Amino acid sequence: MHVAIAGNIGAGKTTLTRLLAKHYKWEAQYEDVIDNPYLEDFYNKMERWSFNLQVYFLSSRFRQILEIRESGRKIIQDRTIYEDSHIFAPNLHAMGLMTTRDFENYKSLFELMETVTEAPDLLIYLKSSVPNLVAQIQKRGREYENSISIDYLTKLNNRYEKWIKNYDKGKLLVINVDNVNFVDNPEDLGEIINKIDAEIHGLFV
After folding, report:
1. At what angle do helices 46-71 and 100-114 cross, to 10 degrees?
2. What is the model's pTM?
3. Is 188 exposed, middle or buried (0-12, 13-18, 19+ CB in 10 A)?
4. Alpha carbons 201 and 145: distance in angstroms, whole number
5. 78 in active site
6. Which one of 3.40.50.2300, 1.10.287.380, 3.40.50.300, 3.90.980.10 gives the CATH number of domain 2-203?
7. Cα 194 vs. chain centroid, distance in angstroms?
8. Where are the beta strands (DSSP E) in the chain?
9. Which of 185, 161, 191 has the alpha carbon at shortest distance from 8?
């Protein structure tokens, strides 16, 4: 079984992935942030490193998806390959931070990968307001994220909402994280787990 968590920067994907992996005894697949050789350079000079960063993320997640399906294990994934192609890359292109030539090349690569991949059995989308995202980003204190602008987060959020509204690749669970604290409040985490249980049971009906 393949469960994936989607959401904007600062929405809480990694934390929820860790908590759910522990609860369900699933294997966790995390986004490659620590070992990513382009991330810090990207935030310092987006227009120079946008294509490199997006191709790195794309290949990393494509590798994850192939491993997930081949393993036959129960896996929860932090962020999906669809977010790269439907949100981050087109947003960079629209902002003039990725050339049309690079963007077309990127899209062609994603479309080729999509022909041999499958969507997650359940997608969990962490819906968040921009103020909440900003608060969470400041709270975790990653130095390279200090340059992220509110305008950039807002544009991403708008694309997330549009993508989720039209998502039709499988089961979808939307969780508004503005009003829940699944880190410090066991009841909030319990409510999320109950919702996931209901969706999972539906997968086997």
Report:
1. 0
2. 0.90
3. middle
4. 38
5. yes
6. 3.40.50.300
7. 22
8. 2-7, 27-29, 75-78, 122-127, 171-176
9. 161
Residue type, 136: Q
Q: Which of 32, 78, 102, 184 is catalytic?
A: 78
- Quickly count: other Cβ atoms within 10 Å of residue 88's Cβ: 20
Q: How high is the mean pLDDT in each 10-residue block of the chain (205 residues)? A: 94 95 94 78 90 93 88 92 94 95 97 92 96 87 74 94 95 94 92 93 64
- Cα 79 to Cα 28, 41, 42, 131, 148: the distances in Å are 11, 21, 19, 21, 19
Q: Are 84 and 61 in contact (CB under 8 A)?
A: yes
Note the pLDDT of residue 43.
82
Q: Return d(Cα 4, Cα 124) in angstroms, integer.
A: 6
Q: Which amino acid is at 56?
A: Y
Non-local (6+) Cβ contacts of 183 within 8 A are 12, 15, 19, 189
- The CB density around residue 49, as the number of other CB atoms within 10 Å, is 20
At which residue do the structure tokens 């003039």 appear? 96
Domain boundaries, the chain: 2-203
Q: How far apart are CA 195 and CA 173, in angstroms?
A: 8
